[in-house]
Predict the 3D structure of the following.
Amino acid sequence: MPAFYAHDRFGEKVWKKTDGEIREIILKHYKQFEIGLQGPDIFFFYRPYSKNKVVKYGNRLHSVSARAFFERAVKAAERAGRDSAQYAYLLGFICHFILDSECHPYVAEMIEETGVQHLEIEEEFEKYLLKRDGLHPLAYRLGRLVPTDVYTAKAIAPFYPGISWQVARSSLRWLRFIKNLLRAPGRVKQGLINTIMKMRGRYAYSKGLMHQRVDNPKCAGSNQGLYRRFTQAIEIAVEMIESFDESVREGLELNLRFDRTFE
């Protein structure tokens, strides 16, 4: 998965290329569209102190064909209507799926080529994007992008069998908490968190969860490669949103592009 800011920025670029009813729906329910951009990643930090079925569910969704999810989503969208927070969330989810599936094969190649862990490649790309946008990569508040209200949680839950709106809301709260916790613009806090990771023997894997002060030069090439794919995926996402919307409106089969996994 490209990480949090990458998905958020990607979605912003995508909606600006939409028009008509689709754009109106997104702008009317932007908060729900925006968290939809994070896809099933919102479940990754649910009660992180123990293994649980919610985290496993989020991981499993990434590894299987997305078609089953989107076929259920069509039915949920029909019940809610196109002019709804649920539908806006779903349009954001499509953006997440497209960016992941366009970038993940390349990330896998870069892991083999550089030996850098998946999370760190994505973290370095996050910093690259933030710098391009004139933002401080260590100080930027990712947590503020996570809504935790009941209305949004109720817009999310219908798309995930077995996930109640209460669990969806708790997942959002955990996500916001973790993003705020791992925001470490100062040397002391970042040093402390890195030390804890090292003491637990998880530093190599987990350091990519936090924007590190020192850039990894091994990721200079992957940053460029990911940015090319990020840019190329924008038009694909617009096309797939329009295709999905047509399927909902006309009762057509989903585009074959939805057969792919997030990987």
Summary: Residues 4-259 form one domain.
